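Margin note: ligand = AHM.
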Amino acid sequence: MLRFTMPVTLQHHVQQHHGAELASVIQAIAEASVLIERSLRTAALSDILGAQGSTNVQGEQQQKLDVLANDLLTEVMRQHPAVAAAISEEDEDAIVFTGKRDAAFVAIYDPLDGSSNIDVNVNVGTIVSIQRVASGIEPTAAALQAGSAQAGALYVNYGPATMLVYTAGRGTHSFTLSNGEYLLSTEGLTIPPQGPYYSVNEGNADDFPADIRDYLQSLRSGGLFGTRYGARYIGSFIADLHRTLLKGGVFLYPPTVKAPNGKLRLLYEANPLAMLVEQAGGMAVTVPMAGMPAERILDLLPQALHQRTTLAIGGPVEIGALPARATRHLVA
Ligand code: AHM
Ligand code: MG
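Resulting structure:
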């Protein structure tokens, strides 16, 4: 006999497990992402592809869709009574909303990650970290708490299907956009302990620390685990991470000569994804130059909103096998 089960909506899921206030913030972000998704779907038809002609605080060229996604998310956050401030990768300073002294959260986001891939119709994503504002704390100080204090984190992967993956500290759960609504796909995602792929920009390999080059070589040759790893690199963090979360393996952005502290941003990219991956049984650590100890991403105390970090993130087997200097106080 066929049984019909009601699909579980995102809002219902968050509300049931984490309360109404956080649920309404996550739901508002989800609604903004639906509008971003619509713009992406028709961008090639409506003159919103291509460069805006401006650069952001990171000195990167902004795409029109970067600006559109940023404006949209910021407006939605401004209107939400529980959000005290918006902190965006695209804006130099925090946007602190007036008249919301008791608001419980700050929203920290990369509105459209991987936007250099938009013009070639490759996945892009929205990433959001939600920090709690303790009473008497300025919103900017709340944003500079360690990643381990995050109330929640989510990303939206705009792909053949649009998926939203969130955690609020009790597992990592995925939802698929269907007729304007996110419906539960998988409750309690678990990253495979070991996977078939490594993901890194190998064009930078000559710059990597020698022991990281050796590590990658031993994944390729099968010398490390007796099985040869394949390479996958899209160049959109969310697309690379979504695959890593589902299929297993490891994503790395090690230090390079051009980016000695890594390229990815701690607040907008590394922290939210570290929480999502840890909640799914994975790990996320820094990849310092040889001789320096690695640290758990979620333990880092941010010094600045736009701080960058090196990153290795993925399954416990691959992260645990990183060169010893990089994991010595993390692995028993
Ligand atoms: P963005 O936030 O400006 O779009 O840049 C971040 C992107 C990530 O999506 C991706 O993982 C990384 O940059 C790729 O960098 P590279 O081209 O150096 O490999
Ligand atoms: Mg970006």
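The chain has nine helices and 17 strands.
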